[in-house]
Amino acid sequence: MPGIASAGAACKDVGMSKKAERLVLAGLLQKLAPRLGAKVVLESGWKIAGQITFPDRGGKRGNKSYFRYNTLDLNPVGASDIAKDKDYANFFMRKMGYPTVPGRAFYSDDWCETIGSRRNNAAAYRYARKLGFPVIVKPNEGSHGAGVFLVNDKREFMRAMRHIFKGDRVALVQRVVRGRDYRIVVLDRQVISAYERIPLSVVGDGRSSIKELLKRRQKRFRAASRDTRIRLDDIRIAHKLGVQKLALRSVPERGKQVFLLDNANLSSGGDAVDVTKPIHPEFKKIAVELTRDMGLRLCGVDLMVAGDIRQAPKKYRVLEVNAAPGLDHYVKQGRAQQKTVENLYLKVLKSLAR
């Protein structure tokens, strides 16, 4: 199913607990480190930050490396900070000739007053009208796809901006770009993972409400040990349903697929289709070069592709780059995919050990 441009905000907005994040990365690193003769020490509070000590080699003291949430210290601090700031990252990617999503950053009224800027809500709305509705509105920083809105008119636009400015003082207004949403993960100039991202949806059975279907979907996530938590009070779900003239109490007809979000992030309930093997070599080259040009060693490159990533590039846009890409998207699919995740993180550990 075609998607639209996506981005994010804080973990708490998608109902993910700190405990859930710890179980993914910290648990895997603790399990895998002994294979390299390394050990992992977690801080004793939330257990979301840790130290990895690698063994001594050739008379040289082993490296020490650190992680917090999904962030490992493979990447330089400056490059990581630029990647985290979507507006800055887009500026540099455009300067280097990469096709990014047309858009601009605007600031909350309070922040405009502080820094003496006129790029406030009113200016943002004028820019949105210039782009032409619908447009994408999203926070400038963050992850997991929280706070991303597809808005169709002034009322929806202002509502989305108010929501974003509750937790972020910078918002992006972007043109809608359509196509298939892919993430390509690069580690030390090698593509180690690629997958298509499909937004959260439910399929009607003719009897159950959307709320009931969502609850069942959450149960399936839990049974598969997937840490995604669907919030039924998520403003983005209400917004998406409202655009379709639906509500949580609506009962879709049998076989009808109803999409609940505009973004395709896995942490907010989306699905992944692995394309690591069939991805076209040119797309691999694009992802590797962009990762290098952004000064990163580990990077998730998000692309919106008009067509199929298995075929040579014709038209695509870079949605964003992520300096701390979670590699756990396969876990939900079963034990065989758990092995895939372990192999990916083993590669990361080997890179950290160098």
Automatic annotation (TrEMBL):
Gene Ontology molecular function terms on file: ATP binding; D-alanine-D-alanine ligase activity; metal ion binding; ribosomal S6-glutamic acid ligase activity
Coiled coil residues, start to end: none
State the Gene Ontology BP annotations: SOS response
Task: Give me the Gene Ontology terms describing cellular component.
Answer: cytoplasm
| UniProt keyword list | ATP-binding, Ligase, Nucleotide-binding
Name the Pfam families on file.
Dala_Dala_lig_C (PF07478), RimK (PF08443)
Q: Which domain of life is it from?
A: Bacteria
ATP-grasp domain ranges (all copies):
90-350
Q: Which SUPFAM superfamilies match?
A: Glutathione synthetase ATP-binding domain-like
This chain belongs to the protein called Cyanophycin synthetase
